[in-house]
């Protein structure tokens, strides 16, 4: 069994999971603070910038359904290494200075992140079935901390050299390189393919399950909210009178706030009979933050903390639901693929639509109201997904 193979070195696997998690947001979130510079250098309007930001999300949609088959063929460890390699190639390509390279590079980054996003819940389910909530919270915390560092340092890195935004983008290359070096020794052993862990769950049964759809829609609305605010928060704040440095720092606060719920959910979730209450409270926090940003933007720090905290808690819940609602690692991979495929398809609609609303109306009011509505719907589906149930065999 794979768990026995790793049984002698659980700390190595945990460290690898956390390092991989560092690569699953930072290369993407580091772009948003640089959007204004990219628009000026390459001639984007808000709609085109929104389309740029959805390229990784579209890559998620295309690649996520393919990951279970990839994992069954290569094994989880080798598939994870491939994800890191693709992310590294995308980071290098997007910093070459042309529009085409920027678009293709971001698409590659998204493809690598998609593979990692699908693999990690299945890896946790396979090797740590009794600690799903704990490890999920830990790697989401790590993911958020690194994303916060990437966001808050993007503008200083841009200003540090004459290469400007190109240097700020390529600086993220250090993450996949370090992770690949640490992960490399795992490739020397024969990794059992995922199919050996359990019979493969038929995708048709997953797609026909109401519970699977409840988990999927909950993740979808959370992804819509998170990636929309992640893409446009610096611009929204700049239009409200904040400087680029202040907007970048608050964008970093958003990432950090999204990581903090892990500290609370780690001890809390094992004690809960089910997750219905917390699955309603999390989107409620984000809803309150969007209303505050709409009515009193001068208090942006408080609203950003609420939005990030709510989105981070919902993200941890969505990933935990993948493990908690599935019966084995193969079923977890199928549910993870479904939830992330549909979820990121929904999320991909956010940035360009919100950017288009800004271009059409000249302000962010309607866009923020859309986010409020998405949070309300997320709470409804969170209540359903939070019940203590599992998918059928």
TrEMBL record:
<feature type="transmembrane region" description="Helical">
    <location>
        <begin position="101"/>
        <end position="120"/>
    </location>
</feature>
<feature type="transmembrane region" description="Helical">
    <location>
        <begin position="302"/>
        <end position="323"/>
    </location>
</feature>
<dbReference type="InterPro" id="IPR011701">
    <property type="entry name" value="MFS"/>
</dbReference>
<feature type="transmembrane region" description="Helical">
    <location>
        <begin position="278"/>
        <end position="296"/>
    </location>
</feature>
<keyword id="KW-0472">Membrane</keyword>
<dbReference type="GO" id="GO:0022857">
    <property type="term" value="F:transmembrane transporter activity"/>
</dbReference>
<feature type="transmembrane region" description="Helical">
    <location>
        <begin position="211"/>
        <end position="229"/>
    </location>
</feature>
<protein>
    <submittedName>
        <fullName>CynX/NimT family MFS transporter</fullName>
    </submittedName>
</protein>
<feature type="transmembrane region" description="Helical">
    <location>
        <begin position="41"/>
        <end position="67"/>
    </location>
</feature>
<keyword id="KW-0812">Transmembrane</keyword>
<feature type="transmembrane region" description="Helical">
    <location>
        <begin position="335"/>
        <end position="354"/>
    </location>
</feature>
<feature type="transmembrane region" description="Helical">
    <location>
        <begin position="249"/>
        <end position="266"/>
    </location>
</feature>
<keyword id="KW-1133">Transmembrane helix</keyword>
<feature type="transmembrane region" description="Helical">
    <location>
        <begin position="366"/>
        <end position="386"/>
    </location>
</feature>
<dbReference type="Pfam" id="PF07690">
    <property type="entry name" value="MFS_1"/>
</dbReference>
<feature type="transmembrane region" description="Helical">
    <location>
        <begin position="132"/>
        <end position="155"/>
    </location>
</feature>
<feature type="transmembrane region" description="Helical">
    <location>
        <begin position="79"/>
        <end position="95"/>
    </location>
</feature>
<feature type="transmembrane region" description="Helical">
    <location>
        <begin position="167"/>
        <end position="184"/>
    </location>
</feature>
<dbReference type="InterPro" id="IPR036259">
    <property type="entry name" value="MFS_trans_sf"/>
</dbReference>
<dbReference type="InterPro" id="IPR052524">
    <property type="entry name" value="MFS_Cyanate_Porter"/>
</dbReference>
């Amino acid at each position: 069994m794979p768990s026995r193979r790793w049984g002698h070195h659980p700390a190595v696997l945990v460290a690898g999971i956390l390092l991989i998690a560092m690569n699953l947001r930072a290369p993407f979130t580091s772009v948003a603070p640089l959007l204004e510079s990219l628009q000026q250098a390459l001639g984007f309007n808000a709609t085109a910038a929104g389309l740029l930001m959805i390229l990784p999300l579209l890559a998620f949609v295309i690649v996520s359904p393919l990951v279970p088959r990839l994992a069954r063929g290569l094994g989880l460890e080798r598939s994870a290494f491939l994800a890191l390699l693709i992310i590294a190639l995308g980071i290098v390509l997007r910093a070459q200075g042309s529009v085409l390279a920027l678009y293709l590079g971001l698409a590659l980054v998204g493809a690598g992140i998609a593979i990692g996003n699908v693999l990690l819940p299945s890896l946790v389910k396979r090797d740590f079935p009794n600690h799903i909530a704990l490890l999920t919270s830990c790697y989401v915390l790590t993911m958020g901390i690194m994303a916060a560092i990437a966001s808050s340092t993007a503008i200083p890195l841009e200003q540090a050299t004459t290469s400007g935004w190109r240097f700020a983008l390529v600086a993220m290359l250090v993450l996949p390189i370090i992770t690949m070096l640490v992960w490399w020794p795992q490739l020397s052993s024969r990794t059992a393919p995922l199919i050996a862990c359990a019979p493969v769950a038929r995708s048709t049964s997953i797609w026909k399950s109401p519970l699977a759809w409840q988990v999927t829609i909950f993740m979808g609305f959370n992804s819509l909210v998170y990636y929309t605010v992640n893409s446009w928060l610096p611009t929204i704040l700049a239009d409200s009178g904040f400087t680029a440095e202040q907007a970048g720092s608050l964008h970093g606060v958003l990432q950090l706030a999204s990581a903090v719920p892990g500290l609370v959910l780690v001890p809390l979730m094992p004690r809960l009979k089910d997750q219905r209450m917390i699955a309603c409270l999390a989107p409620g926090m984000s809803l309150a933050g969007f209303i505050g940003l709409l009515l009193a933007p001068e208090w942006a720090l408080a609203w950003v903390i609420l939005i990030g905290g709510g989105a981070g808690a919902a993200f941890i819940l969505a990933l935990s639901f993948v493990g908690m609602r599935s019966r084995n690692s193969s079923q977890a991979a199928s549910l993870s693929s479904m939830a992330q495929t549909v979820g990121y398809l929904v999320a991909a609609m956010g940035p360009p639509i919100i950017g288009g609303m800004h271009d059409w109306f000249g302000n962010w009011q309607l866009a923020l109201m859309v986010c409020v509505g998405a949070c309300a719907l997320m709470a409804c589906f969170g209540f359903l997904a939070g019940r203590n149930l599992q998918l059928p065999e």
